[in-house]
Model the fold of this input.
Amino acid sequence: MYEPIRTKSVHTPADHADDFPHRSREEELDIQLAGHLAALLAVTDELGIGEAGDRIAEQVARLRGAPPARHAGRTDAPAPASALHRRAHALAGRALVVAASRADTAVAILAAERMDAHTAALAAPAASARLVGAH
Done:
């Protein structure tokens, strides 16, 4: 009554599944963490927090094996500092979660410090960017 299926199912494993490279969980977490830190670095540079940016850049370079591109400083973008601090806080939180997952203590501490600094900056909107980068 029905004609039998003559082609392989899409659910059948490929004959040569080892032909393409696979990454380990640790490699995937390294890539994810480096991405979160690079995004945090961009916002940190936009805020003009040099010392914290240098520390973040060191960790990105360690994870990627090459130094990250750096932002030259504040742009003429109309984004208020409070929005940048909220964005940086969220990015630092994401980095903290991934760093904890891969047991990277140095990045976890750095991310927690950045979260605290951005929380403090949001609590005191009149505080200068220099105060935020005091860590």
Q: What stands out?
A: The radius of gyration is 21 Å.
